[in-house]
Amino acid sequence: MASGDLNMIKNIAESFLVSSNTAIDFKLLRQAEDVGDENCVFKPVMSHQVFGESENIFGYRDLQIKLYYSAGRLTTYFGIEYSEKVDPDKLEGYQPDDIYEKISKVLQPGFFTNLTDFCNELEKDVNFVPCGELKHSFSTDNGDRNWEIYMCEVTTPNFVQYHERLQTFVLWYIDAASFIDADDDHWRFFLLYEKYVMDGSTRYAIAGYATVYEYYAYPNNIRPRISQVLVLPPFQRLGLGAELLDCLYKYYITHPKVLDITVEDPSDEFQRLRDFVDVKNCKTLPSFQANKLEQGFTEEMIAEAKEKFKVNKKQARRVYEILRLHMTDIHDCEQYRRYRLYVKNRLNVPYQKEQQDLKRLRDRLKDQDVQAALTFENIDQRLESLDREYRELEDQYQRVLQRLALL
Questions:
Q1: How, if at all, do strands 56-58 and 17-19 pair?
Q2: CA dist., res. 313 & res. 304, Å (int)
């Protein structure tokens, strides 16, 4: 085949390629009229867990994938629309991606593919009531919007099937997410709903949720680990994530057998949320008051943060550094220098240990070629790396303090 023909085929093939993140439309519908409301649409953050690392779909023009959920019961509709589909006979056997196969295997069986049937099913949301035990209720927007948080276990009636529909969202919003084994009774679930009135009746719309696994801790305790926290896009930037995390904390603070609360591989965004909630809580403790912060991170802080808010030692130190930055006058050269030096010394501890281990290894080796291969990092390079690491950390801390200032 001539190179010109190959280029033509390549160009045609590329014209049938679309970003899966762009092609997918999510909606949480409260009534049938919302089907045609484009303001209800929200997009996935990622799609590689369904469509591969390239996050592309091949074989369609003007592709639109519709994943609609009823806001309460999470009844699901899955539709695919396009203006043209690639013909393998006209394009050297290139096959279009099987969109239905890829998405249907991550949806709970029983989803609708007929939009009319789905809209008829929406009427049942009027009877939906959240599963589980009400743990917290609050209002935002000067009392105009009301919210409730419920705690569920795998034994909670009707919850497992509901969770199978709910957890499909994590694939599109949490990297490296996986579905939870609902047969494991160590899981706890905290579900956030907006409570609203429509047509004279009280209704609920799912807004987000968190999952926690209760690990055993010797000799007869538990150590809860937060696994997933998700606030759905239509409800973000409202302070709901902090309310959800704070509710989760308050539930475990009352548990005498809980040692502390950990987090499984937190994202940068979740770490900021966690920092904000922990700083907001710990700044009320005597050991974290301004007159104590200049004295350094103490055992008293570790003990009090753990006892009062189940904050572990590593996280308590972050809280300390954030609050100390808050009380540091960064325009006072000596104050600011002392703060930076304190944090950098902490950041440098793993590096110093690594260099000591490397030196001991070199001293034990007799082969000079192997010794030469084990090189030490140049001191100037290390200082540059340490300074960059510090600046990134201070930027994270400043963002937490900016949010704290809005309270």
A1: antiparallel
A2: 10
- Give the mean pLDDT per block of 10 residues along the chain (407 residues): 55 83 98 94 97 96 97 98 89 88 95 97 95 98 96 96 96 91 91 97 97 95 96 97 97 94 92 97 96 93 96 97 96 95 92 72 61 58 90 97 93
Q: Is residue 271 part of a domain?
A: no
Instruction: Tell me, yes or no, whether 261 and 359 share the same domain.
Output: no
Question: Are 91 and 134 members of one domain?
Answer: no
State whether 281 and 407 are in the same domain. yes
**Given 81, 92, 264, 294, which residue is catalytic?**
264
- Contact assessment for residue 298 and residue 285, using Cβ atoms and an 8 Å cutoff: no
Rounded Cα distance between 199 and 177, Å, is: 38
53 is catalytic: no
Looking at the domain assignment, is residue 272 inside a domain?
A: no
b/e per residue, 237-267, with b = 16+ CB within 10 A?
ebebbbbbbbbbbebbeeeeebbbbbbeebe
Place of tokens 């049942």: 124
Work out the angle at residue 172's Cα, subtended by the Cα atoms of residues 190 and 104, and round it to the nearest 5 degrees: 100
Domain residues for the domain of 194 are 129-265
Angle in degrees, 0-180, between the axes of helices 240-253 and 299-309, rounded to the nearest 10: 90
- Same domain for 135 and 120, yes or no, is no
Q: Do 351 and 401 sit in the same domain of this protein?
A: yes
| Local structure of residue 177 (DSSP, 8 states) | -
